[in-house]
Write a structure and sequence with these properties.
Layout (H helix, E strand, L loop, with lengths): L1 E3 L5 E3 L3 E6 L3 H4 L3 H6 L3 E7 L3 H10 L4 E3 L2 H5 L6 E4 L6 H10 L4 E3 L7 H14 L3 E3 L7 H11 L6 E9 L18 H4 L3 H17 L2 E9 L10 E8 L4 E7 L6 E8 L2 E5 L7 E5 L2 E5 L9 H13 L8 H15 L7
Parallel strand pairs: 3-4, 3-6, 4-5, 6-7, 7-8, 9-12
Antiparallel strand pairs: 1-2, 9-13, 10-11, 11-12, 13-14, 14-15, 15-16
Helix pairs in contact: 5-6, 6-11, 7-9, 9-11
């Protein structure tokens, strides 16, 4: 069980010992426990700038080591690979440091603040000959694998068009101008909630339908609760010739999460974030598939990554290359931002 790096040199990885930079909410249930529950995997060290919080996380999750300095974690000889769970503003910095230390990188989404930073990360990891994985974990979940199976079997014929409608109410925390969450601070996140949430849908469309080759869009701030854009609309064309349109609004009166893939013989309807069934509509009627909520949403992707590192499987569906494509699409959609207040 070998992870190959730097030409002919190899690192024995019968088990992947993970270090985690960042101990925020996403790591409590969604990701952190997945590293402990995956076979041949262990979370051995965590880091947070506030040492007491890192220590608290380590004790609650049975992690042996904790740090308040990222460099110490990255260079810990007992850490084989690093999961970066910080806001996007530090993804590039920590990815580069980890790659130069010769260790594989698993970085949160969106991959970086922008497409240019993604390219820098890819180049450094390529030069260091280390894998770069991105936490677009839906690509490994049964729900979306089923949708891809339906498409691959041409259950709706030739795909013509895909539409996305996503809108929700402005939650209380985004109205806090004195202490706004990092997700709506562009210098930390890259943009508003579109960058935090819309990236998941755009990435899963890349997974299902292939890369997007042409994009146009509009972005503005309508409600005035914060400075980043709160409404985004985009149109795009995939390399395959499929057309798409998406609308995201984060100051609406209710929540809607709806995607429809339209084909010549039917359509597939599904949500990005919800747990409603996947619907296949054809002339024969409606079929549906239910998928229970996953306790640790990262786990299916973590399992694929660990298998890649320990057994040499090259079947990880979310890499730096695919993650960068999603960042490129988002950058293009918002490049003609209206006046942001």
């Amino acid at each position: 069980m070998l992870y190959r790096r730097k030409g002919n040199r190899t690192m024995e990885l019968a088990k992947v010992r993970w270090g985690m930079i960042g101990c925020g909410d996403v790591t409590e249930v969604k990701s952190g426990p997945a590293f402990q529950k995956t076979s041949n995997s262990e979370l051995v060290a965590v880091m947070r700038r506030t040492g007491k919080l890192a220590e608290d996380y380590a004790k609650r999750h049975n992690v042996r080591k904790w740090y308040d300095d990222a460099d110490e974690l990255i260079n810990d000889p007992e850490v084989d690979a690093v999961y970066i769970a910080t806001p996007p503003s530090s993804h590039k910095e920590y990815t580069i440091k980890t790659a130069k230390a010769g260790k594989p990188v698993y970085v949160e989404k969106p991959m970086a603040l922008n497409f240019a930073e993604c390219n820098e990360m890819i180049a450094v990891c390529k030069a260091a000959e280390v894998p770069l994985y991105v936490a677009y974990y839906r690509r490994a979940q049964p729900k979306f694998i089923k949708i891809k199976e339906l498409l691959d079997k041409h259950m709706i014929g030739d795909v013509r068009f895909v539409s996305t409608t996503h809108y929700q109410n402005a939650a209380g925390d985004v109205r806090n101008k004195q202490n706004p969450p990092w997700r709506i601070q562009p210098e930390l996140s890259g943009g508003g909630l579109f960058f935090d949430l819309g990236c998941h849908t755009l990435d899963i469309l890349d997974f299902l339908l292939g890369p997007i080759k042409d994009v146009h869009g509009f972005a503005a701030n309508q409600a005035g609760y914060y400075h980043a854009e709160d409404i985004v609309t985009g149109i795009y064309q995939f390399e395959s010739g499929i057309h798409g349109v998406g609308a995201w609004c984060f100051s609406a009166y209710e929540s809607v999460d709806l995607n429809e893939i339209i084909g010549s013989k039917g359509k597939i309807t599904f949500s990005t974030f919800g747990h409603d069934p996947v619907l296949l509509t054809t002339d024969s009627g409606i079929e549906q598939w239910d998928f229970p909520a996953l306790q640790h949403v990262h786990q299916p992707l973590v399992e694929r990554i660990v298998a890649d590192l320990t057994k040499g499987f090259s079947q990880v569906p979310s890499t730096g290359v695919t993650g960068a494509r999603t960042s490129w699409v988002m950058d293009k959609i918002v490049e003609n931002r209206g006046e942001i207040i």
